[in-house]
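A quick aside before the break. I want you to see a complete sequence-to-structure record at least once, exactly as it would be stored in a machine-readable document. Don't worry about memorizing anything.
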Amino acid sequence: MLLRIYVSLIAIFFPFMIDAKEIMATVEVTGNVVYPTCNINGLKDIPSGLTQTVDLGQYTAKDILDGTTKSVPIPLVINCSSGPNINGVSLSFSHLGSYPPVGSYPGAIRTNLRNIAVLLKWKIDNSEVEFFNIAKVFKNNGDNIYDASMVAKIVPYTSINNIEKGRLKSGIKVIMSYI
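That is the input. The structure line, written in tokens, reads:
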């Protein structure tokens, strides 16, 4: 009985199987890959927004040794609100030329003056800036605007009263990535 039903089904559908045709179509997919449209500190040119000269003030050797130098803000506001939504940005740093990090003083970079460093901290959480390929990640909080501002302060990296006097210079390379 089962064999008869099977043979009957083949006989019914066989003519359709012979007449079956193959249809082929092409489906095209298009899109655009774009960089986020961001500005830094109000400047559309990202390298110009990252490049800054910050005046840390004028101090005596005693001020530096006593720790009475002022913390100076370094604004770094990354505004990506006019472009596509991103998950966040990350910033990492490397030393610039002859201004390496002070190994015994986290967050500090050397200056051109002997025994004087610049201490860099994140404004958002007061943690020291890392210089050894460790990125600080700023996640999107919904508005695509990231406050990556820092605070800089002149500090001694020795307790010896042997601080060189003169015009202080230092710097870091900033690497910004989109997440």
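Two observations worth writing down. The chain is about 15% helix and 25% strand. Residues 15 and 152 are 84 Å apart (CA to CA). We'll return to this after the break.
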